[in-house]
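G., before I forget:
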Amino acid sequence: MTTADRSAFGDDTQSLKVARTIDTGFFWLTAFFALAIAGILLWIVYELFTIAWPAIQKFGLEFLTSSRWNPVENIYGALPQIYGTIISSIIALLVAVPLGVGVAIFLSEDFLPSKVVTPIAFLIELLAAVPSVVYGLWGIFVFIPFITPFLDFIHTTLGWIPIFSTPPSSRAMIHAGLVLAIMISPIIISISRDTLASLPPQLRQGSLALGATRWETILQVLIPAGLSGIIGSIMLALGRALGETMAAAMLIGNANKISISWFDPASTIASLIANQFAEASGLQVSSLLYAGLVLMLLTLAVNVLAEIIVSRFQEVE
Amino acid sequence: MTTPDNTPTSGTTPGTMSYTVAPQRKLFGNIMTGLVIACALLAALPLVSILITVITNGLSRFGPAIFTELPPPPLVDGGGLRNAIVGTLTVMVISAAISVPFGIMAAIYVSEFARDTKLANAVRFGINVLSGVPSIIAGLFAYGVVVLATGTFSAVAGGVALAVLMIPIIERTAEEGLKSIPLEVRQGALGVGATNFQTISQIVLPASLPFLATGVTLALARASGETAALLFTALFNQFDARSVWQPTATLSVLIYNFAISPYKNQQELAWVAAFLIMVFILIVSIIARRLGRRTQF
């Protein structure tokens, strides 16, 4: 730009042009980042898929039904891990769902003054923020010694039930399942509590006016009305439990076998990867990535389902 | 009730406005109230136990040596967590440098340029799904993208893995913050001749700063304790990492390694590391809460 152009007017149009360029540039930059997030998701699946490809080619779907994991013979099948992943998550849900929904009701239905509820809600948020490796550490040194006498008692009295049929091992499916339950209950509590609190007050008033007691209102009106939100929270918690690595790797015992008894060691897909990846090479790496891909698709399916359920609830609202 | 008649039911007293609830209904209510109180106590128990054990075990070894010395090999006494503390901070800075621009720019697009469009919904759906990706998968992804490409485990690989986990948290809180700014504020700025970029960068972003800061602190809290994503990206290092392209020790991986080791000294250091992470998370959550309270525009 020469000095002759430096009239106030010319300068203005010039800077307007610059401003417009910056503006469009900024728009496309933000659009790029937004689309890149969707891109990352596809990139993750692509990356897992390419590294896992040799194993997918070699074992195909048999990988999902075979229970041999043998690095010496280079034969891999992940059935025990898939079984362990699902069963440990089911144990976690069996404990966490009643517990979590119970606490959510307790915190949302004026059992307590709001002055007491706020710090409790903060504590629950904190429970959700505790890293899983700390849960694992606590599980090894505090929780397992604490729970073992109870498990012994269950084994001696209810040992005829297959799932309790072996004496509790020092690391077992049940330990991982219970610690997972502690980890996922904050998710269920916080989302279910928000759901119950956001229901229109007319529902509550109408039910009470018709003569229902507080608990009849909760069980027959509020819970059915908030059901999709509660189910959504359970699905999100399930997604977390399926993919949880550290607590499982530290507590489940990492045994490559399927045992009916919950008191036996087992392993999950995530714990298998955490244990073997560092020392793996060649086909074993591919097989571990194949297992990771299975885990990714499993959690993806659960999370997408949760997303759909929760968003449907929001539409009703 | 099968027949509608005028005889008073067992629970009502005829002729008065007051009524009593049938005893079994009352009993049922009391039992359920007792049950949910028991649920709340049962849920509080592990948290209290974790806090107490982490604080007592962590403080028993806490001292200046924790910050100045390296982790000890097996059967050697003493030692500290110097390299792991530095490593955790390094990995967190790298992951924040990647995830903060990513999350905030995406949030700007979704809330400012594409609000309520199909594309915005699709992006939000992608973010929600991304937030459900297990951390070990994020680790495998960073292994494939960074470790295999550069041929070495490194703090950068760890940072990329953590960034994948942090982006959804930052984007969500940033989007919420941007949406809490009333439309009139934008219209005012545009009305006096500002471009979109000027409106966003000089009016909207500063106004929503507390939200952005909340998101970043929450994401850092999550990243500070993340382990599975770092197991085979940052790996571990017995010594100080000399650059970000070397295997790097982190507090969380150190907890994992030392918790499953049979040596008492290493187990004690694992508790100290857990204590440090928990203190960091507590401080960060309190800061995030304080910031969140000041978000009314």
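Residues 1-10 of chain A have pLDDT under 50 and may be disordered. The two ends of chain A are 59 Å apart (CA to CA).

More on Monday.
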